[in-house]
Amino acid sequence: MKINALDNNGKSKEYDVILTYYSDEYNKNYIVYTDDVYNDKEELNIYINEYTDNPEVISKPIQDKAEYTKVKTAVNELLLIMKNESDKLETN
Fold this sequence. Notes:
This protein is of the alpha+beta class and 92 residues long. The chain contains 1 helix and 5 strands, in the order βββββα.
């Protein structure tokens, strides 16, 4: 799935959606996506934003640092689980 979102320069850019995540704690949905660009450490750029019901602005930055940290931790755990499951499938 692809989405269009604003990059750091305010320009609309196409991104690939990795997953969506719902937090019971914050009662919000989040969207995790990438621009398929790797940084200097050869890590894929991954972005996490709050997912909205507004069709004109489907994502918005997470303003609260503590909220962002908790959501990022949960998403990282999910991505690790997905990677481990994928690795299991490849070895079988």
